[in-house]
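Protocol step 4 of 6: record predicted structures for both targets in the notebook before any analysis. Target 1:
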Amino acid sequence: MRPPTHILVVNGVKVRRPVFVIAAPHSGADLLGRALKRSPGFHITMGRGPVARVVYAFARRPSIARSGGAPRVLRDVLAEAWQIVPGACAECTTACREAGGIVGSGPCAGPGALSRFGDAGPDLLYSAPVLLQAFPDARLIQIIRDGRDVVADMLADPTCLAWFKPHMLGEDAEFPNPFLGVRAAEHRERWTAMPAAGKCALRWRGAVRLSATLRRELPAEHLLTLRYEDMLSSPGEAIDAVSAFLEAKVSTIALYGAPRPAPGTWRKRLSPADAELVEKVAREELRRLGYR
């Protein structure tokens, strides 16, 4: 017999069909999170410290995520992040505060107007199975972007590069390691010696493989897949698809005029050697996704 669905109440509102935006790094999760955050009735968090710590713990040690208590831990930390209380937004990241248009101490939303909750924090993708256990009625929106453009952005981001220090794949690391894209312990030395562009490509490859698994396993009413490139070229159509999927009105304005690199700028931003390495590491996934 299936256990009863957990009833979570936040700010006096029952959490129903929460929305989670998932993607590889620099693939547009924050862009869609911004659009959702500025939509009536939505309260979307992005990278709150306590949530990020749990997400990264699950990502780096998948065995923790498979424990029986993982869904409760994730549900509780998200419930706390969604609370609308004085000063709560002071704990948010700069990206989250900017997306919510925070001036001063906030908050970014009024509790009386809320009907939907969600999160678009970095690397939430690696917690997707736990999210679905914690919230069986969750709606996931995953975003796919050309891995070469992703790598170009990752190489310019010190936060992303910090994950590639040798100790991140130490003796206590678990394998396979989807977070760093390493399949087995015997590949540890090869990973350590690999240039940063190759490590970024492995992270992207691991992320899109997880996304492909979700697409195979989840029914259409629980998962929507968008392309980053379509969000930039046809924002109205992209938001229409999101609105239909969530059965709610989503703001399109946040997608217009976003200062984002145009698709294909990796040709100027990656050195020939880095571009060749990325295409070697991620050739199969780039081809499967139609990025020629």
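Target 2:
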Amino acid sequence: MIWYSLLVLAVGIERLAELVVAKRNTRWSMERGGIVRGQRHYPWMVALHTGLLVGCLVETYVADRPFIPGLGWPMVVLVLASQALRWWCITALGPQWNTQVILVPGLPAVRSGPYRYSWMRHPNYVAVAVEGAALPLVHTAWITALVFTVLNAVLMVVRIRCENEALKLLDERPSR
């Protein structure tokens, strides 16, 4: 179980790296007149993502969940794929990427990288959903996977509605 703890720790470190990038991008956006939207749901999002990491470890250790190779290894692949998709999103959005919804007046909507596909308007949330199910299932923490997935689905309804409202304003401008 040590290697699983290290995997969860690595995902936690990745989340901290995201926060560093987000803080830098927030500063960049605010210097350009950025407007923060949807602040009420943001603390819930932070709590949910923190709970995912804690839940993975607590359930695995307390319930003595086994590693089942036929489930665990494919889930590791999905965790890594979700990380790759997440960082593709972060790279494509550049300084416009953030953990919060920040609209910078006058900037066009990004239509490159994974955002060029009209059928996947929010690819970062695909990464979040996949990771939220896969990370706990690496070590059969199915309760954590289920609870995160349900709560994340509820939260994403609010978050995506908030982002779509912001994107409508950007959609009226030419894309880059």
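Step 5 preliminary note on target 2. Residues 2-31 form the longest helix (30 residues). The longest strand covers residues 35-37.
Proceed to step 6 after PI sign-off.
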